[in-house]
Amino acid sequence: MAKLLRMPEVSANATHAAIQNWTLKEGDAINAGDCIAEIETEKALVELAAEEDAVLGKILVEPGREVEVGAPIGVLFAKGETNVDIAALLAKAGVQPAANEPVVDDTPAPQARFERAPVVDVNNSVRIFISPLARRLAADKGLDLTRLKGSGPNGRIVKRDVEAASVVSAAPAPVATSVSGAEFDEVPHSGMRKTIARRLVESKATVPHFYLDVECRMERLLALREQINQAAPKKISINDFIVKAVAVALKQVPAMNVTWTDTALRRYHQADVCMAVSTDTGLITPVVRNADGKALSQISAEVAELAGRARVGRLRPEEYQGGSFTISNLGMFGVEQFSAIINPPHAAILAVGATQHKPVVENGELKVGSVLRCTLSVDHRAVDGALAAQWLAVFKGLMENPLGMLI
Hints:
Cofactor: (R)-lipoate
Mean pLDDT: 83
Helix content: 25-40%
Radius of gyration: 26 Å
Oligomer: single chain
Shape: elongated
Distance between the termini: 61 Å
Domain Lipoyl-binding: 2-77
CATH superfamily of the largest domain: Chloramphenicol acetyltransferase-like domain
Number of domains: 2
Family: Belongs to the 2-oxoacid dehydrogenase family.
Subunit structure: Forms a 24-polypeptide structural core with octahedral symmetry.
Strand order of the largest sheet: 13-22-21-20-16-19
CATH class of the largest domain: Alpha Beta
CATH topology of the largest domain: Chloramphenicol Acetyltransferase
Number of strands: 22
GO molecular function: dihydrolipoyllysine-residue acetyltransferase activity
């Protein structure tokens, strides 16, 4: 029996969302678990998966159109079902069809997709196991299936494998125009960019920021990192140490591990640290959960994996929502020092610069030292100056004596 496919609540408290892309066309058969469409949220793309076997009978919302959560976006037919009165189905649900919506669907008979047969390369008779969606995406991108490595069950090639082989930028295309003879390109704002702009203005306008600077001597940490990387299969970065030090400091100074609400201060029992990641459409902050209890190698692998998927818009909402503290690291760009804007409802954000060789005084003697400058931006409603200074001193101590964060 035909039924409506509705826009899901793809992120917490979302009221609207937009279809970024339909991965199937009208008449395509669907297996339970198949991706039907990609939905654009404020921060990422989320796959809409089928709950049961069906046929995509009718698409009601075209890509790019924003609709309310719960609004009908398509019609699903039962297998073998035809000639569905879509207008009556919408009317029964209390929804008015668009003026040009046909009363009776004339969708062509669905193509059989229920049998997941392997693809056979005719040149060398290699059997390639690949999902229908991944096969179609690979064809669209002109990829050689024999060169793709599958990460799905039993080595099956799935959608993420195709995306990893050919990342397509999600940034809107620029529009050439001119005003008073001055030529320029006008790039439409993405949903993420609009959200960032709104939240940053709100943060600066409503959150009382104050700032604390600290310099960390890095000689011991750099020496320890060199020792670890001599034996580690994958290199540990300075940033991985920073994530670990921030998390351990939050556990040692729990009054700093908070977020602000209008009715209460929330104190968290675990140290979930967010990392600011730059993407083509703006910043996003994936979360490293329970970072204080994880080994450096775990943090390194998790940060790399989250950052990689963040840059192609493939984070799940639970992977970038939450946390109590943010790190923004521009050291890899050679930035020595900067101040960051707090990401509400977090109470603080740590801006990290590059490690620099500088003259330092040690035991009354002038020497050259390795120095890392960090600036802590703090919400004064949630955290007082003395508490922030206490936390920053603990963080500095862990960075300068890194074995303390590993014990």
